[in-house]
Design brief:
This protein is mainly beta. The strands form four sheets. A seven-stranded mixed β-barrel has the order 12-19-16-17-14-13-20. A six-stranded antiparallel beta sheet has the order 7-6-9-4-1-11, with no helix packed on it. Strands 2-3-10-5-8 form a five-stranded antiparallel beta sheet, covered by helices on one side. The longest helix has 11 residues. It is elongated, with a radius of gyration of 21 Å. The termini are far apart.
């Protein structure tokens, strides 16, 4: 039995192992997966002395509790939350030493949705297709944490960062998503295109790692019928039959049959990981060829 391991005392609502994911396998039907807030994951790795692509824990809302079998350095970031070691307050957003056998508690997020826990050496579960990430849609990667599970740790790669704390962006009060025209924007009326970029939406409680669902005006289609299933990308804004946009996140399917009206810029997606239900969402058009004031009429040939 190795002493380089974590014992899961409390798994929390949904805690998964995540790293950079599996880019490059979409043609095989394998989603990208990976940390929903990659900037937060990279930062806690740096604080703990790990390379940026080391596997971390991604918690959802109510954190987790862990007991290391040997002394480790940990760093907690992403959604702000209380951190304790054997009941004593510890730093959030800074390296913390946790002695062997001590209880690390990552508490409920006070803002945002997902906190990230980096441990010196990284979570060393077996990789699948080059990644240790859990993909909730396909089931690839290690199962979500359960009480009593034991997670192996790698060897420390370097010393923790010499900082007391570092600034981290807070969860968005308003989620601003810059969009460019999608491949099926001509399946929607001009009014729908204007509504997407001028009307108010909110984050739905039904959102998850697969997609950020929205509540707000339904988008009217200019044509009926169904699409054959076609490739989907990270950030695609798909519109299901209820007309409410869904923004595809890390565990999105690689194909889909609902029309994609727009695509969100990748730089705006980390904030979506921390947007709590009810957060206002604003879609902003960023290309001249598609804007609320000038939209192209539906093409009778495109998408046939």
């Amino acid at each position: 039995m190795t002493d380089r391991a974590l014992v899961v005392v409390r798994a929390g609502a949904l805690t998964t192992v995540q790293d950079h994911g599996r880019p490059g396998y979409a043609h095989l039907g394998v989603p990208r997966s990976g940390a929903l807030d990659p900037r937060a994951a990279a930062l806690v790795n740096r604080l703990a002395g790990n390379p940026a692509d080391a596997a971390v824990l991604e918690t959802t809302v109510n954190g987790c509790a862990l007991r290391p079998r040997s002394a480790v350095t940990v760093a907690v970031g992403g959604a702000p939350c209380p951190v304790t070691v054997d009941g004593r307050p510890a730093d959030w957003g800074a390296p913390v030493t946790v002695p062997a056998g001590a209880l690390l508690e990552v508490g409920t997020a006070v803002a945002g949705v997902r906190s990230y826990v980096a441990v010196s050496g990284g979570i060393a579960v077996e990789p699948v297709l080059g990644s240790r990430s859990r993909d909730l849609l396909s089931g690839l990667g290690p199962a979500p944490l359960t009480d009593g599970a034991v997670l192996p740790l790698g060897a420390p790669a370097g010393p923790p960062a010499r900082v007391d704390a570092v600034p981290q962006p807070g969860p968005p009060a308003e989620l601003v998503l810059r969009v460019t025209a999608g491949p099926r924007d001509d399946w929607f009326t001009a009014g729908a295109l204007r509504a997407l970029t001028t009307r108010a939406y909110r984050v739905s409680p039904a959102s998850n790692r697969i997609g950020l669902r929205t509540e707000g005006p339904a988008l009217e289609r200019a044509r009926g019928g169904e699409l054959p299933s076609e490739g989907m990308v990270l950030g695609a804004v798909q519109v299901p039959p209820d007309g409410r946009p869904v923004v595809f996140l890390a565990d999105h399917p690689t194909t889909g049959g609902y029309p994609v009206i727009a695509v969100v810029r990748a730089a705006d997606l980390p904030a979506a990981a921390q947007a709590v239900p009810g957060t206002p969402v604003r879609f902003v058009a960023v290309r001249r060829r598609w804007s609320p004031a000038a939209v192209r009429p539906p093409s009778p040939r495109r998408g046939a």
